[in-house]
Design brief:
- Helix content is 32%, strand content 24%.
- The protein contains 2 helices and 4 strands; from the N terminus they run βαββαβ.
- Strands 1-4-3-2 form a 4-stranded mixed beta sheet, covered by helices on one side.
- α1 packs antiparallel against α2.
- The two termini are 26 Å apart.
Length: 98
């Protein structure tokens, strides 16, 4: 279930943040996703065309919401495009025909 989400931060200053600051914030997001309650390594955040693309697959909708919350906290004020897919983990309801 892919649900692209985009948000933009305040544009009151009219200037783009310094590239080094953005790279630091993306790296800090990776650290938080890996180290905190999530332990989520299947999510990537990359700088693409002046925005941050957050992509990956997570095991549950709750995990997806947590990833999006952490991304909003870490990347506040930046343009973020999120495409986080929730993996289907339910058991098949019938045998696979080969």
């Amino acid at each position: 279930m892919s649900d692209p989400v985009a948000h933009q931060g305040p544009a009151a200053s009219g200037t783009a943040p310094a590239a080094g600051n953005v790279e630091y914030r993306v790296a800090h997001l990776h650290d938080r996703l890996a180290a905190e309650e999530l332990g989520e390594l299947g999510v990537r955040a990359e700088i693409r065309a002046g925005a941050i693309a957050v992509t990956g697959t997570v095991p549950s909708a709750q995990c997806r919401e947590t990833v999006l919350r952490v991304a909003r906290e870490e990347l506040a004020g930046l343009t973020v495009h999120a495409d986080i897919v929730v993996a289907e983990t339910t058991r098949p309801d019938h045998a696979e025909e080969l």
